Amino acid sequence: MINKQTIDRIFDALIIEDIVGEFVHLKKAGANFKARSPFTDEKTPSFYVSPSKGIFKCFSTGKGGNAITFLMEHEKMTYPEALRWAANKYGIEIIEEKLTEEQEEQQNDRESLGIVVAFAEKYFINYLHDSEEGKAIGLSYFYERGFREEIIRKFNLGYCPDKGHQFTKTALERGYKLKYLLDSGLSKDMGGQPFDFYKGRVIFPIHNVSGKVIGFGGRTLRKDKKTAKYFNSPENDLYNKSRVLYGLYQAKNAILKQEECYLVEGYTDVIALHQNGIENVVSSSGTSLTDGQIKLIKRV
């Protein structure tokens, strides 16, 4: 593992226009640089580099970030590979340090949580579109709400079977550990018998700003007033509700272009507005607006 002091030295040395300029033909545009997007085929330049902020932004794809992010996106490098590339460019000696057992365990836990929630997202999407139960119950609900097919797929909406432990059983059979199913909140334990936390609910995956799924919201379709309308993922190494905004990944392009962001109450409000052409909209998903969420919007 590259130690923190080395990483700090690398980031202090980064000159984003130098690094991006290794791969993209940049032209001066006032205080910034612009170019045709290196991520897509376009005729009109929509790719900008800001030396003062140390960031790039591609308006045609929504990609953006610092110089290390650019290397990861454009050259498909891992984070450590990008750091090493930049260190070599600026003649910085890499100093390694061994992870403590606690750090290694925490890193493994986070990676394992990410893997299991990514599996769950695909499972719920497929069950919604490909199973008779999913189509009859989940898709029917979304259609009744007026959501079209393309918006359902844009937000990766899904459905969890109403069969007690079908999802959990499938995940365990595929080799996913019960620990991470429980830590992620996808499964619950009742007297040593795990069951599906979201059973019989339509699923709203929650993504971070780069588009990776980190948690879920699940809405019941039952009329029983004793049943909680929504279940949400518990906080864990991946998901911290005070630092997450639902729909930010899908909204960030529009927020940046319009320099304005609307905050609404819930998942379906965000989706409905997107479907009607208003895309600069997010939801705090039932929590009070926090400083962390405001900073998220400002960083877009």
Compact overview of the structure:
By secondary structure, the protein is an alpha+beta fold. The chain has helices at residues 4-13, 16-21, 67-74, 79-89, 101-130, 132-144, 149-154, 166-173, 178-183, 248-258, 267-275, 291-299, and strands at residues 27-29, 32-35, 47-50, 55-58, 64-65, 158-159, 187-190, 193-196, 201-207, 213-220, 230-232, 262-264, 281-283.
How would you sum up this structure, described in words?
This protein is of the alpha+beta class. Helix content is 42%, strand content 17%. The strands form four sheets. Strands 1-2-3-4-5 form a five-stranded antiparallel sheet. Strands 6-9-10-11 form a four-stranded antiparallel sheet, sandwiched between helices. The two termini are 29 Å apart.
List keywords for this structure.
300 residues; DNA primase DNAg catalytic core, N-terminal domain; Dna Topoisomerase Vi A Subunit, Chain: A, domain 2; four-stranded antiparallel β-sheet; globular
Unreliable stretches: none
The total of beta strands comes to 13
Give the topology string: H per helix, E per strand.
HHEEEEEHHHHHEHHEEEEEHEHEH
Structural class comes to alpha+beta
